[in-house]
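BACKBONE GEOMETRY TOKENS:
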Amino acid sequence: VPGGRAHKKSKVEVTDEPRAGYHYFPAIARWPSASVPRRKIKEVAMSIMARLADLDEEDVFKIPVTEAFPLMADTYLRCVQRPMDFRTIMEDKINNNAYENIIELQDDLILTFRNCCTYNGESSYFFKYSV
């Protein structure tokens, strides 16, 4: 994380069983694709990700869930079809210039947060943290 700031550790207990069920996802307006020229996508995306990393004080989205919690990987992957996290976005997508437009970054970010909500359930701390 830029600036090397210390992170608070979560006091929330992680379980290995999903609490999936009803999911409320807030309506999110689409970013205008023409607002960021292709040549500027990497720069803008890096700026967005730096800000999101700062906001993610508990590093919930920093690395893949299956890496952070290997004992629950199978359960998580049965619940979440397309895992996504900040490192995957940064290393696999942004650094490799994989985004054709800024909306693709928005889609991956929404996927990251929705996966968290889907796995943990609407009444969980992590659902509230995500939205």
User: Anything to note?
Assistant: DSSP finds six helices and no strands in the chain. The CA atoms of residues 1 and 53 lie 7 Å apart. The longest helix spans residues 102-120. Confidence is low (pLDDT under 50) at residues 1-22.
